[in-house]
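Q: Can someone sanity-check these two? First one:
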Amino acid sequence: MRKQILLEIAVASLERAIAAERAGAHRLELCSSLELGGLTPSLELLRQVRAAVKIPIHMLVRPRAGNFFYTAEEFAQMKSAIRRVQGENIQGIVAGALLPEGSIDIARTGELVALASPMSVTFHRAFDETSDSSRALEDVIGAGASRVLTSGGMPSAAGAIEILRKLITQAAERITILPGGGLHAGNIAAVAQIPGIRELHTGLGTVLPYSDPHLAKFESAIRKILAAL
């Protein structure tokens, strides 16, 4: 019997959210400005998507592009964004913060986790900016996050299979490792075969421009991924 793997799709528009659900995606990561790596979406977009789809939604909380160590004002913006979506029937927050030297900001991450509760928190790919992934994983676990979105520090998660395998072994069921970055139908099956993989993430940006208006292409790309899984 083939294992069931949850497929999360990053989207930045109502149209792509609807198309992702129609194609069979199991969860959405809702963002804006995916071409910048993703930023916090507007409350209006969130409400439109929530009204239109039934699958779970995780919302990215990232106030700007660039590095992941934030000023007090930027961190306050992040907390405000989480407060605004309490009661909006979404299931998770995707966020994270680093210290200037590049390690996990455990205190701020823990604060975001506590504020988001009962929503789950995914620590996003700021994780891949750390210099010691083993230590970083323990820090994220200590902060209380539910999962880590990571490409294993590589441009594509498909090029980091051994790193991802080690992270899953280290996690030992304490946290979900969510591989993402550069995944598509042509390479996702190899990542899915890693023991312990339960979820996978892609925005399909390496095979389809985020600005491409052709929803049929987007749906087809998702269906091909699901077929490969």
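And here is the second, same format, sequence then tokens:
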Amino acid sequence: MNNNNLTAKAIRTEKELREFVGTPHEAVIRKTISIIDEHCQTFLSMSPLLFLSTSDAEGRCDVSPRGDHSGFVHVLDEKHLVIPDKPGNRRADSMLNILSNPQVGLLFLIPGMEWVLRINGSASVMRTADVLATAPADKELPALSIVVEVEECFIHCPRALNKAQIWKAESWPQAKDLPSPEEIFHGHLKLNGMTLKE
């Protein structure tokens, strides 16, 4: 099947889609709130890992993992949270996207828990000192943070993580069978005409 055939078979309207997936239960719709309530605050305080989804002005998407100690995301108030931006590879993909398109999606995980917390909203890149006065005693505040104004917040069912058996160590592949990040990195550099000395 060529790409033209794939495009021709694409579902293009909500009506077509609903014929396959059906209509959500009213409770699934009404579970969405627009604030960080006490339940969401508890979830955030226990989460050491999130995935940040952004897109640029043209709609090109990116998803980036962010992790640190549990509760590293700070809740300022019921409408705002702060994600400290730790120094990395300097690509700054997420922050560059936010500068041109502030809409973001966040997915928070807690180890051992198959339910996840989803938050959607509008983000800004700010100097951390302007939004956070202090950090835990053993942590140093980074120069920049991503501040998210919450628009939607809801708990998401455990089906995906349950099916993936993500927290069941006995289902994990053996270390010797895992893909080699070094081989992938150097292989992709080679495809782009670049090599690095060992």
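A (reply): Looked at the second one. The two ends are 42 Å apart (CA to CA). The helical segments are 3-8, 14-21, 26-30, 38-46, 93-100, 128-131, 159-164, 181-191.
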